Amino acid sequence: MLGVEFPGAFLKRMAGLLGPAEFDAFLKSLTEGEAARGLRLNLAKLSPHEWAERSPWPLEPVPWCPFGYYYPHEARPGPHPYFFAGLYYIQEPSAMAVGEVLAPAPGERVIDLAAAPGGKTTHLATRMEGQGLLVANEVDSKRIRGLLDNVERWGARLAVVSAPVARLASAWGAFFDRVLLDAPCSGEGMMRRDPQVRAHWGPGAPGRMRRVQERLLEAAARLVRPGGVLVYATCTFAPEENEGVIAGFLRRNQEFDVQEARIHPSFAPGVPEWGGGDRRLARTARLWPHRLRGEGHYIARLVRLEGSPGTPSHHVPPPPKKAALRELERFWSDHVGRPLPEILWERDGHFYQLPDGLPELKGIRAPAPGIYLGAAKKGRFVPARALALALEAADAGPRIELSPDDPLSLKFALGEPVKVRGETGWHLVTTDGFPFGWGYLKGGVLRAKHARL
What we know:
alpha+beta; globular; Rossmann fold; 29% helix; Nuclear Transport Factor 2, Chain: A; 2 domains; 14 helices
């Protein structure tokens, strides 16, 4: 990082906040320290022990996440068949703390309100062990595609919606046990690793973002049931976006209190003086790059003490068109060895397996209201990649195995045709026994074929 320049106004403000001794350590971490790299395992697909037997790289545990690991700088886990099979998610280590602080339990109702690109959503899905209701919301249509790609690799049963937070609050009310607002922010905590943040930061950015954060947090609070938990997180150092936002929220919403967010000794307490002196702010957490191996984050865990719960009706999809359902049933009978899901939604030939307990979606855009199974076309059914990633190898067939060490595996994952032996027709394609797509084999050439949203 030597030679990297940081905005002078930013450094001056941080020096005033931290004082000489701590600022020197902070600045050294930015200018001389390397950004840590991390990945988080998909426990629905393999255990840490099973991963240790397969990992192509030496890994070190992330101390605040039991299934998170640092990987060496020379490793390249992105272009690897294991990544495309959804065995792990590449995530900055400090960001793993957010899902651990929210700590959803299996069977709970959980919503991630600013979900793209999907890192924290997939973390929550792992904590929930496939039980309960998980909703991922992203209002920015430009980021939806990345979110869909990442959650489909994870193979989790959840719903992706796209609506302003205030609209969700009006429609569903205080319905959720756990609510996550990973708020848009000025991004100061990412300056070390992202030159775009350094280039676009300005002294007025924290103040502008605070107004957005306050509005989102007020709406998010309306989705929390009595006794439920709301986690507010940012990746910025600016007090006005962190302690300042939480202090103002607590003054306006006295039915909320602050719970401890410092789940690891390396997490520093929030600074009450930076938020008007409310001593409860010391229970919030600051992750500083000079105190741990990770970037800058702020996390507050809030609990709702009282109020009335929301009781929205469940979403009831219309019956699927008979012709489309026949094509799905024919494909399912030939290729999938588990029962056809009971809760299906068909939209223009596209089928989704809905999660249990999904609230009414009237007036709410839902790009993927459940696991996307594929599309019924005239005389055939084209399966979705999301279906393959939600299955185990024993659940479907016929299968074609491509070794993760074979270049053909990565070529197939990237959508390139590969030459293999087998019978003409659909095949579930696996690598090291893990599904990572459907292929149609004809004339000795296997092509990745998937329905697309």
